[in-house]
Structure formats: structure tokens, C-alpha cells
Amino acid sequence: MIQLTSQNIQLHAHAKNKEDAIRQAGRVLVDAGNIAPGYVESMLGREQQANTYLGNGIAIPHGMGKDRELIHRTGVCVVQFPEGVEWNPGQMVRIVVGIAAKSDEHLGILAALTDVLDDTATADRLARTNDPAEIIAGLNRQKEGSEPAEEEIAGTKFVDARLGTSAGLHARPATAFVDLAGEYTSEIRVRYRDREANGKAMASLLKLGAEGGTVLRIIASGVDADAALAALKEAVEGGLGDEEEKPSRTESRAWVPESSGRAIAGVAASPGLAIGKLHHFQADHIVVKDTPGNPDAEWQKLRNAIESARTQLQDVYDSMKSRVGKNEAAIFRAHQAFLSDTELFGEATALIEGGHSAAWSWQQAIENRVKEVQSVSDQRVAGRAADLHDVGQRVLRLLAETQHSEPSLPDEPSILVADDLTPSDTAKLDPQRILGIVTVAGGPTSHTAIIARSLDIPAIVGVGAAVLELTAGITCILDGASGILYTEPSAAELESARQFQIDIQRQREEEHFERYQPALMTDGHRIEVVANIGKASEAAAAVEAGAEGIGLLRTEFLFLERDTPPTEDKQFEAYCEMTRALNGLPLIIRTLDIGGDKVVPYLPQPHEDNPFLGVRGIRLCLRKPELFRPQLRAIYRASVTGPVKIMFPMIATLEDLRAAKEIAEQVRTELGVPPVEIGIMVEVPSAAAMAAEFARECDFFSIGTNDLTQYVLAMDRMHAALAKQVDGLHPAVLRMIDQTVRGAQSAGKWVGVCGGIAGEPRGAVILAGLGVTELSMSIPSVAAVKAYLRGISHTQAQTFAKRALACQGADAVRELPLP
């Protein structure tokens, strides 16, 4: 490898534009005797053919292959532009690495550059440094056994630590390292053998491939370097929390493949594991025509399409990184790198100059490159062909016509892929034919997710448009618990997944067998687990599933899909059917909650720009006593047949609660029946903020986390673009719940939760730890949640809840290891 020296480095340079910056780099190479002056023009010519911007403020201008005779000897130079040079619109370069290569001696520095691309802090440091030695250290890889670079830079310190986990530095311990390193301001690097990584970047750490029991060198520079090194050394030698998990304490158990393979991450919507062939609910057909225009115009079309694809991939990467982490999103960085392949672009450009269209030329170039990669003997390298094909299709869609075929359902059991599914589409799906669902859009509280859970169909939502590019008919494994779709798994992985399905079925059978046992935690603390239902017939099913009562009866089923409101007697009969089925178990009846997204034909409502912020729930009932009073009469009449409680929805002010209670008391007095407990739904921030005041005027709270989440985050949970971000485990929502519980406890009142997070083990543990005493969920979740809570202590739940409250986002909460 060639050596970079201070002769080849120019600091604190200024440039008017990109051309000026390239010429300055060329002059450094000319002065060093590496090139003839004519090679500078070749460097400018290359820039016209291909973008040499790498990312993180770094560009690598170099000449064209045909001009190599102008190179006297291979060399590289670095010109630093601290103020930046606009390379392309939106791309600011501060480090220019000029390259003149007769062969491949410069590849070592290019390899080091790819590491710098993963490390924003290092790139920023090199762009500001006053010391050429620092640039040399950053861009020259150390050979194994050579002196470490940290000893060449003043102010750095290091410690050696033996990795105390037999499984090596894989995702879980790497996450722990990154989290701990992030608590310190110092720059943290980790060296393993001849590789070095950014200690605050997951993807960079995983590239080390550090095996269990081996020694890592941890390097730190900054004001708190000593403290950081001490803490990290202790954590590394302690195994970074990578303890072997007990099989009985898994969360909606996620299947873990032997190798990561090719995976697409989305949002877990409905648990379960599906194995089957992929079927597109609506497939794209790309039509490529060789109808060339002016070569310059076709060339510009291709450049525009590549840049648009690059922007799309950046959006996908950012979205995936924020949701599942940098490592899982790294594939889209690789896709962006494919778009920077100058040879691929040059091949397509040559075809355009030969008289072909941009779309046809790109397709030919991509197909040729895919075949070349597929022929490589190294299977891991050959596997990149699928990624290259994906990138090619993305650009092709921007260049060619796209036609849509009619939606069709598969003839054989399949995993269905769709841009999105309407509630009616999802409800019509046959679980015998649809093994799993994957959608581009949507969130965990969308209609698709809710219906998929009720049908017990594994589902992932919000995966992004990349999934539409997968080839129909390929075999996949869909893990609804982890929110990951694994494409084209190996035979061993398929066998592992099938065994996992058997294990899950066995676990469900055990949970079902023990479903009537209470959710008594290991230290004696009990959580009441009840069910949400929407019609009378479900009461008996809830009891059969192990529910200890009904925490939420949605009475809308009595009012919807009819031309006139139900009579008092009709409602009374329905409530009595439930009290009989419950045989003494409690029944919480929520009064009519329509408005917003629920409307009835016999109750015309004026148009509202923001129906979820308008006349809905108790607001509507107070304005329509002809609906409210008969319902209250039916509830009070049914209360003498079993333990019934009344719950008012959408309570935002004390005035609304007092008005509703006054009408209820009038009805009760008229009937001459005993009082019942009256509670409120806490689903708007004002109710949570004033929980102490509300608790003095009602008997209990039931927190509706689905609505509370959308109001706290100001995101409509049905919004196509935002739904996947509407997560009830967001710390802002959890802190509202915590405030509500503390307010209720101050008045000696109990709190339940009837929103979606109550029905998942992670949410149930957090809620129990916050002091919630009743969890109400969909019927299929009852046995599993009870089983999970029976396996942990309340103290563990409290500790876990405190950690969740301290997180900064929903992703961080979901990444916390469960007790």
C-alpha cells in the first residue's frame, strides 16, 4: 500500500467551486511528481461522467482509465476545505482525496475511507485538524502488529479488555456497548486485531467480527476518557449483558435465524411465524422500451434517475435506522454505494452514446453486472446480486413506464405483500390461504394490524416500498413478533423455522392449559387480566380464554349498521346476556363512543375538519340525551344482574365528567337501583395532566392507549404516512400513564389499561411496573400475557418500567431486554 505523507496534504484550503477544488488536488499531485499536468483535465473529465462524492463530506476525484499514461507513479493527496465546497446540490465536501492510480496500490486508503464514511465524528475531526499526522493516521490502516495509531496522536488513551461473552460481539452486546459509550463525550474507538471501529456506531462495531473471549483495545480521547475506559472495560469483561435467555421468558417469541441472511425490517403488527411463497396483492410490471432521444437528454435522464434513487434510498435508510438501528439499515448504504459505481454508469453511458434509450441502456448494464456477480464462486459475494438487482429496479422504475395488474389472491397458501390493505380487504382474507401479511404502509394500531391479530394472521406493517421489489414466488419467513421478513432462507433456516412453529404451538398449548390461573407474579403481586369485547357473544369466549372479566365493552356494536337507534330494552337484553355469561365476573360498559371515525346514519353530524378533536364520545352523548339516557337506563337495569361498572369515554374536562355523572345519578334515582362504580377513559392529555383532580370525582381510570398515543404525539393513528410512528410505548405516552397512575393513587383509586400495549408482554410488564392493576386486551392475548406475568416479579417490572420511562424514543423502549 502506498504511504500518505505530509507532502501530499494541504490544510485550510479555499475553493470557489468543485472545479477549483479538483484543480487544487491535481496541483498537489503534480508538485509531488505523481502525474503530468494533463491528468488534471482527465480528473475533471471523470467528474463529468460520474459523481465522486462518497458521503460524510468526502470526495475522491480521479482520472479516466484511458489517461493512465499521464501517471508517473501511483499516489494520493488530501486537500482539506474546512469551510466546505458544494460538490453537487445538497452535497458539501470538506475533504478531497485526489487519486492517481496506475494499478491497485491506493486501495488501502480507499478501504480506510469506507470506515471514515461510517464515522461522522472522525470525518469532522479530519476536516478541522491542524495536524497532517492526524489525517495520515486516519487514512492509513495499521498493519497487524504495528504500533497503534492512538499512540501517534496526543491525548488518546486506551485499555485492553477481554470480551466476556462466548457468543462474540454480536448485535445485543454491541448495542450495550454503543449505549454505554454514548453516555460519554469522548470519542470512542475499538480495535480488534487489524480492524478498528467507531465505538458509538453499531454497524461499525459489528464489522469487527470480534469472537468471544478475545481481547479488544478500547481507545478514547476527550475530557472524560478515563471514566469512559473504566466503564467500558468493566462492561466488556462482564459480557455486556449478553446472558443466555430463558426460553420461558421470551416476548411474543421471535424466531432467530442462524445467520442474518437478507432481511427486511418493519413494524411488528401481529405475532406468529409464517413460512411460504410471496404473493403480490398488486404487482408492478415495468415496461422498458428502447426509444432513444438525443443522447445528451438520455444521459441526463439517467443521471436524474440515479440521483432520485439515491435520495429515496437515503430516506429508506434514515427511516430504517431510526426504527431498527444502523446495522439493520446498512443494506441501504450498500445500495447507495452501487449507485456510485462509475464502471456501471460508464457502461450505461456507452450504450446511450451507441444510440439507445436511458431505460434500455440501464437495464442492459444492470443485467450484465448481476450475471457477473452471480458467477462469483464466493457465495457471500454472489448473494450481493440480489441487492444489485433491487437497486437496478429502483432506477428503472424512474426511467420506464410502470403498469399495474389487477389485485388477485393466491391459489395456494402464501405470504401476501401489498402497498396497503383496507379494513375490508383484510377482513375478507382467509387464514387458510393467507399465511402472513406484509404491507408497505400502516402502523401497529392500524385497522390492518388489528384485524390481522383478530384473525391470528402474522403481520408486519410499515416496511417501506423496497418490499414491492421482491420477486413473486420466492420463499420467505415472516416473523410477526420481531417485525422482520426473511427472504429466500436456506434449507437449514427453513427447518429451524418449522421447528420453531412446533415449539410455539406447544407453548400456546401450555399457556392455554394454565389460562385460568391468575396472573400472580413471583413475589405475590397480582395483576387482573381482563378482555376487550365488541359484542355480546364474545363475553363467553373471553371467559373460556381465561379472562377474569371484561375491562372494556364497546357498546357501539348496538348502534352501528342500523337505521334507527337501539331501544332501551334491546340494550338491556344484550347487557344481561353478558352478565349471565360472566357469571359474577366484572363487566365494564363504556357508554356510546361515536364520532371521529365512527358515524351512524340516523345521527347526521355536520362536517368537521378534525373529527377526532370534535364532537365525539361523551361530548356527543351530552348533546344527545335521547341516546344517552336510554343507554344509562339499560346499564343500570342490567347492574342488578351482575357486577357492572360504567365508563365514560373522551373525558377531557371536569365539567364533562360532572355533567355525565349528574345525568347518570338522575337515571339511577328514577330506577331506584343501587349505585355502581363510575370511571373514565383517560385518552386525552388533559385527563392525564389532571389525574389527581379527576380521581377525587370518579371511582377508577381506564387508560385508552391507542387514542392517548395519537393525542400525545399529535399523529393520526390511521394516517398513511404517520401510522407506523404511532407507538404506545413512546416514553412521552408512558410518562402520561405514570402521571395518571400517581394521580389515581393519591386518591386511593385503581387504574386499568384497555389499549393495545396491554396485550403485548413488553407493554404489560411496563404497565404493571408503573402501578396499573388491571390489563384489558383482545381475547387471543389473555393466556400469553398471564403466563408471562406469572414468570416475573413486580420488583422486576418496576425496574423495567423505570428504564422505559428514561428512554428517549419508542425504539429504545422496544430494544430494552425484557426481564
TrEMBL record:
<dbReference type="InterPro" id="IPR036618">
    <property type="entry name" value="PtsI_HPr-bd_sf"/>
</dbReference>
<feature type="region of interest" description="Disordered">
    <location>
        <begin position="238"/>
        <end position="257"/>
    </location>
</feature>
<dbReference type="Pfam" id="PF00359">
    <property type="entry name" value="PTS_EIIA_2"/>
</dbReference>
<keyword id="KW-0479">Metal-binding</keyword>
<dbReference type="InterPro" id="IPR001020">
    <property type="entry name" value="PTS_HPr_His_P_site"/>
</dbReference>
<dbReference type="InterPro" id="IPR000121">
    <property type="entry name" value="PEP_util_C"/>
</dbReference>
<keyword id="KW-0963">Cytoplasm</keyword>
<dbReference type="InterPro" id="IPR023151">
    <property type="entry name" value="PEP_util_CS"/>
</dbReference>
<dbReference type="Pfam" id="PF02896">
    <property type="entry name" value="PEP-utilizers_C"/>
</dbReference>
<dbReference type="InterPro" id="IPR040442">
    <property type="entry name" value="Pyrv_kinase-like_dom_sf"/>
</dbReference>
<dbReference type="InterPro" id="IPR018274">
    <property type="entry name" value="PEP_util_AS"/>
</dbReference>
<dbReference type="InterPro" id="IPR016152">
    <property type="entry name" value="PTrfase/Anion_transptr"/>
</dbReference>
<keyword id="KW-0460">Magnesium</keyword>
<dbReference type="InterPro" id="IPR000032">
    <property type="entry name" value="HPr-like"/>
</dbReference>
<keyword id="KW-0597">Phosphoprotein</keyword>
<dbReference type="InterPro" id="IPR008731">
    <property type="entry name" value="PTS_EIN"/>
</dbReference>
<keyword id="KW-0813">Transport</keyword>
<keyword id="KW-0670">Pyruvate</keyword>
<dbReference type="Pfam" id="PF00381">
    <property type="entry name" value="PTS-HPr"/>
</dbReference>
<dbReference type="GO" id="GO:0009401">
    <property type="term" value="P:phosphoenolpyruvate-dependent sugar phosphotransferase system"/>
</dbReference>
<keyword id="KW-0598">Phosphotransferase system</keyword>
<comment type="similarity">
    <text>Belongs to the PEP-utilizing enzyme family.</text>
</comment>
<protein>
    <recommendedName>
        <fullName>phosphoenolpyruvate--protein phosphotransferase</fullName>
        <ecNumber>2.7.3.9</ecNumber>
    </recommendedName>
</protein>
<keyword id="KW-0808">Transferase</keyword>
<dbReference type="InterPro" id="IPR008279">
    <property type="entry name" value="PEP-util_enz_mobile_dom"/>
</dbReference>
<dbReference type="InterPro" id="IPR050499">
    <property type="entry name" value="PEP-utilizing_PTS_enzyme"/>
</dbReference>
<dbReference type="Pfam" id="PF05524">
    <property type="entry name" value="PEP-utilisers_N"/>
</dbReference>
<dbReference type="GO" id="GO:0016301">
    <property type="term" value="F:kinase activity"/>
</dbReference>
<keyword id="KW-0418">Kinase</keyword>
<keyword id="KW-0762">Sugar transport</keyword>
<dbReference type="InterPro" id="IPR035895">
    <property type="entry name" value="HPr-like_sf"/>
</dbReference>
<feature type="domain" description="PTS EIIA type-2">
    <location>
        <begin position="2"/>
        <end position="142"/>
    </location>
</feature>
<dbReference type="InterPro" id="IPR015813">
    <property type="entry name" value="Pyrv/PenolPyrv_kinase-like_dom"/>
</dbReference>
<dbReference type="GO" id="GO:0005737">
    <property type="term" value="C:cytoplasm"/>
</dbReference>
<dbReference type="GO" id="GO:0046872">
    <property type="term" value="F:metal ion binding"/>
</dbReference>
<dbReference type="InterPro" id="IPR002178">
    <property type="entry name" value="PTS_EIIA_type-2_dom"/>
</dbReference>
<feature type="domain" description="HPr">
    <location>
        <begin position="156"/>
        <end position="243"/>
    </location>
</feature>
<dbReference type="Pfam" id="PF00391">
    <property type="entry name" value="PEP-utilizers"/>
</dbReference>
<dbReference type="GO" id="GO:0008965">
    <property type="term" value="F:phosphoenolpyruvate-protein phosphotransferase activity"/>
</dbReference>
<dbReference type="InterPro" id="IPR036637">
    <property type="entry name" value="Phosphohistidine_dom_sf"/>
</dbReference>
<dbReference type="InterPro" id="IPR006318">
    <property type="entry name" value="PTS_EI-like"/>
</dbReference>
